[in-house]
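Example (one chain per record):
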Amino acid sequence: MNYIVAKYGIRTEGTHSDLVACGVRGFAPFVVDTLDQEPAMILHTDRPLSTDDYPCTMELSRFNFEMDLAECLLCRYEGGYIFTMVKGERKFIFVKGDNSNEVLTNVGVDGPIDAFLLRFALWLMFGLCIAPLGGIAIHSSVIVANGGAVLCLGESGTGKSTHTRLWREHIAGAQLLNDDSPIIRMVDGVATAFGSPWSGKTPCYRNLHFPIRGFIRLSQAPYNKIHRLPVLNAIGALLPSCPPAFAHDDTLQDNICDTLSQMIAGAPVFHLECLPDAAAAQLSFNTIFGA
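Predicted structure:
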C-alpha cells in the first residue's frame, strides 16, 4: 500500500500492509495508487524480530503509554533506533537503521493487530524518518483562516482545542485542520502545516496543507494579552511541542532545531495569556491577520 503524508511517501509491505483495514482509519484520506518519489518510510510489517539482535546502547525515552496500556522504550542501538511496546505477553518491535528509510516490525507476525498501539508506533517511526528531511510532527491544534494556518501550542490542559474551537465559533470561515499532531515543514521556502493521520481524540484527518501565518503558545490567565516572542524565546516556545522522545538524541534535536529556525524566519511566534472566551480568539486572529 502507498500513502502520502505531508508530501512524504510511505510504502507498507507484508502482512497487514493495509493500515486502514488494520483499523488505523486516519490513513484513509492519504492513500494513493502509486508513489512518484522515493518513500520517506518503507514499513515491513511481518519481520520476526528479537531485541537480542539490537542491544540498546543508549536509552532515549521510557514511558507508559495511555494509562499503562503498554510499556514503551525508545533506544539507540549500534546502527540505528529500536522502539518496543510491551502489552501483556506481546512485545511489538520497530527498528530503523541510520540513513535508512526502512522500518522493520513484527506487528504482523503473530496474533491480531492492535490498531491503537500501531497508530502510535507509526507516528513515532514516521517522525524518525522525516526529521532528517525537515519534517516535524508537532503537538498542536491547527486552525485555518483566510487561507493560512495558525498552530496553537501548550501543555496538556492549557486550552489548545478550546481556543481553536472558539475560532471556529467566532471567526468567519475558520476551520480545523488537525487537533493533535500536524506535520510542519518548509515547502519552497514557506513554512507549511499539513493535516495528518494523527489527530488525538478528534477525528480530523484532512489531506490538506496551508502556509503557516503564526504559532501561538498558550497559557491560562485571568485576562487576554498577546505579544510576539523574539527568536530565542520563539524556538524555546516551539521545542516542547516537538516529539519529547527525540530530545536526548543530538542528531534528531539538531534536525528539529534547524527546521524550526527556518520556520520562525517567516512565521511569527506569539505568547497568548488568555481566558477561554471569544475575546481571546478575536485578539489572536486580529494580531496575526491584521484585521
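Caption: The mean pLDDT is 94.
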